[in-house]
């Protein structure tokens, strides 16, 4: 069988390419242990191969399948990141899989490097180097990683340019001249420059088109001031968020009425600032699903820290991002900030229990006395002689809904003076202005009130299983007043003083939705939520386990033979190694016999010794001929290897030299 000799230059070239790609891996991923160990292995093997040229000869056959290489490498990559965990951003569902591929690509390169019988391994080693480098850049570049990547590019371009020059060294000095190759180098750089310029402009044009088409989604979600979830809320206009059409979540449709989703409650007011109680005790939900009204599914598209916006009265939460908790106000939380999808179950009875919690009336009627006097002055013409708390609350709510306009651009400050200006002059305002004004007006006449922020869902989607889609611009604020209800009991009752029609017109005409771009974005975020909800790490762990089983089944005969070999006594191991060596000697001698028959028509007899064979050869050739001397030298070398308990290393080269001499 014909053999191929690996050029010395190719060894050094691949060594440089691999080492540079592993430097990129180390600087980007901050993992220098794996690339350092891999580099040490291939550097030591390169030194050994260059010191013994016969080791650079290989037979073009595969020793193991690609399926085995890939499977085992991915298993080792998974083991590596398990032993040395990464601080990967869990918000990105692909990160865990990418880190497995990154580490696995290094193991694949090691498999290929030491598989000297694979004829295409240098091509795939170059490919693995590029794969490692490209997978390593999924993090923000630092200066060291940028320099490492540039060095990697320079090395790869350099080996492409100078390889023809080096390969011509064995021919004529003129062909090896760098000046003779200079035109090719210049043309190469011109092609690289043209391609780079084309790619830059293509990316620039593509980016411009993408930004124009997806401009409403291209910028990341910016937290609305409502949903920073700070304990202090300053009343102000929505700014950009009032026109932000980023989808935040989708929830099953509950009724024909708009859905109010509670996220945070503010109890204390002080000159334009609202304060929430951060010391409320949280209670874990039961792990078993509770029986209640129809469960509803909430799919989260954006991260709202640990808060899950829900209707009031949730008694059960099921999902993969728990544990889940609730506070005395009925707000729902998760200890895991990356909430993707939950199924919640609620009931009217539980909502009534949350609403009827005993309160400290002084806390919810607290207001500065002078400010309260001014509020009552403006309130009296609105409510007239009404004394019933519920009638007063309804009247104030209707006053704002019927006599005010809505605006996303509010140009006055919402402190005490600003709220008085709002009540007196009736300018267009935003939901938090109306809610604050109503809450303090109720407090001025002794009615406990508080402000609630969350989302107001009105956008329906789907035909069969209708859902309510909530966007950033659907952020909303409303009022809850503690009022007497039937049987002498008091409860928190929701009031929304924001003019509904004006609000809908403002948020729906503030920024038109491109239906195609919206559908593309929704498909992407839905897929991301569904995938992350699968508990990615557990899923990949199970897939790796299945992969391990498949590798074991595929290579069961080899594995069992290897285990038997390890368990065998020392003499049996030596015998197995000796039998393998005998097969190699037998193959080489058969090739020698075939060569003699082809060149001289001499076929060794069944019981003929090497000495007798050489005597017959001497009759056809002079004992001083080059061919005879070469055959005699090979027979001597063969017997020395064969009966001296030596390995077959080098005999293939001797046979090749013999073939060259007698066929010349």
Helix content: 40-55%
Kindly report the oligomeric state of this protein. single chain
Gyration radius (Cα, Å) is 40 Å
Mean pLDDT: 78
Please report the number of helical segments: 23
Which class best fits the helix and strand makeup? alpha+beta
Tell me, briefly, the overall form.
Answer: elongated
**What share of residues are in beta strands?**
5-15%
Order of strands across the widest beta sheet? 11-14-9-4-17-16
Mind summarizing the main beta sheet? 6 strands, antiparallel
Question: In terms of per-residue confidence, which ranges show pLDDT below 50 for 5 or more consecutive residues?
Answer: 55-62, 89-93, 165-176
Total E-strand runs:
19
Gap between N and C termini: 19 Å
Could you characterize what this model shows?
This protein has 664 residues and is of the alpha+beta class. It has a 6-stranded antiparallel β-sheet. The chain has a 4-stranded antiparallel β-sheet with strand order 5-15-18-19, sandwiched between helices. The protein starts with a strand and ends with a helix. The relative contact order is 0.08.
Summarize the structure.
This protein is 55% helix and 13% strand.
